[in-house]
Amino acid sequence: MARVLVGVKRVIDYAVKVRVKPDKSGVVTDGVKHSMNPFDEIAVEEAVRMKEKKLASEVIAVSCGPAQAQETLRTALAMGADRAIHVEVAGKEYETLQPIHVAKILAKLSQDEKADLVIVGKQAIDDDSNQTAQMTAALLDWPQGTFVSKVEKTDAGLTITREIDGGLETIKTKIPAVLSADLRLNEPRYATLPNIMKAKKKPMKKVAAKDLGVDLTPRIKVISVEDPPVRQAGSVVPDVDTLVAKLKEGGHV
Amino acid sequence: MSQPHRKAVLNLYKTLLFLGKDWPQGYDVFRKRLHKVFSRNSEETDPTKITTMIKHGEFVVKEIEALYKLKKYRAMKRRYYDDNN
């Protein structure tokens, strides 16, 4: 029976049109709908299914962020996690929080909580870093199964099917291990109203990153955040000659 | 509304309202439409008809959940996986 640690991130909702701040320091987050990162939902679902199949004894959800991260943790609890740990990171530190810091936090927590399996989403839909699982595995010196589309328990450990370029790869790992969930791993359940109410009674522990001994000094500096280039409008040409001339001008023929 | 069904109907209404918060066209659109449907049938007294309507409501709840799931899955698939199709 394994104890599973699941990392969840609070991100801007996937359906929201993201706007860049006028000073190009980041994107507008005030008054914008946030929700759990879709890939993390898949990670939570997989952990909960493991528990339902009696492969896991306990599912612990972890989130690093400001006070609002607790809402995301409530969603994870409503989906079936047993308890939650909120690692408080606020203000300036949160703005420069990077996968390396989160990986250190997750690594420390999985040792403290004696977790046998860490599952995270393969990437978050806001910064698309795709680094946390890999770094966590490296810090713990555990095997990693990234971009997982299927997990099966086999006698000694896990048999994992991974999504790779142009196909699938099957690997075997021992436990403990770090997994990152890909889109096709499962269909996450919807956190229903009664379950969200029940989740309010589940335990949530609050810790500060400093108490875990994790240094949150930024390693990178954001120079500028810009909108993607806007598609240029097309134009109607009067005849073939003009078209050919224009194409030559643009260097296409 | 007869008393035995009162709780079930209220529960259904609350569940649907909760689901409406994620409605693509906005919560207000959803809430108004939902209220209209419920108030239209509020005079119903036949218990079998009420039970059928509650059943239908529960079916709609499942449909909306499925809709949200599919919408999210498709958005993710389009953003991260669809290079050539």
UniProtKB/TrEMBL annotation, chain A:
Superkingdom to which the source organism belongs: Eukaryota
SMART domains linked to this entry: ETF
Entries under SUPFAM superfamilies matching the protein: Adenine nucleotide alpha hydrolases-like
Pfam families named among the record's database cross-references: ETF
Role summary: The electron transfer flavoprotein serves as a specific electron acceptor for several dehydrogenases, including five acyl-CoA dehydrogenases, glutaryl-CoA and sarcosine dehydrogenase. It transfers the electrons to the main mitochondrial respiratory chain via ETF-ubiquinone oxidoreductase (ETF dehydrogenase). Heterodimeric electron transfer flavoprotein that accepts electrons from several mitochondrial dehydrogenases, including acyl-CoA dehydrogenases, glutaryl-CoA and sarcosine dehydrogenase. It transfers the electrons to the main mitochondrial respiratory chain via ETF-ubiquinone oxidoreductase. Required for normal mitochondrial fatty acid oxidation and normal amino acid metabolism. ETFB binds an AMP molecule that probably has a purely structural role.
Subunit architecture: Heterodimer of an alpha and a beta subunit. Heterodimer composed of ETFA and ETFB. Identified in a complex that contains ETFA, ETFB and ETFRF1. Interacts with ACADM.
Species, as recorded: Leptidea sinapis
GO cellular component, one term: mitochondrial matrix
Biological processes, Gene Ontology terms: amino acid catabolic process; fatty acid beta-oxidation using acyl-CoA dehydrogenase
Protein name: Electron transfer flavoprotein subunit beta
UniProtKB/TrEMBL annotation, chain B:
Pfam families according to UniProt: Complex1_LYR_2
GO CC, alphabetical: mitochondrion
InterPro entries noted in UniProt: Complex1_LYR_ETFRF1_LYRM5, ETFRF1
One of the GO BP terms on file: respiratory electron transport chain
UniProt family annotation: Belongs to the complex I LYR family.
Protein name per UniProt: LYR motif-containing protein 5
Origin species: Leptidea sinapis
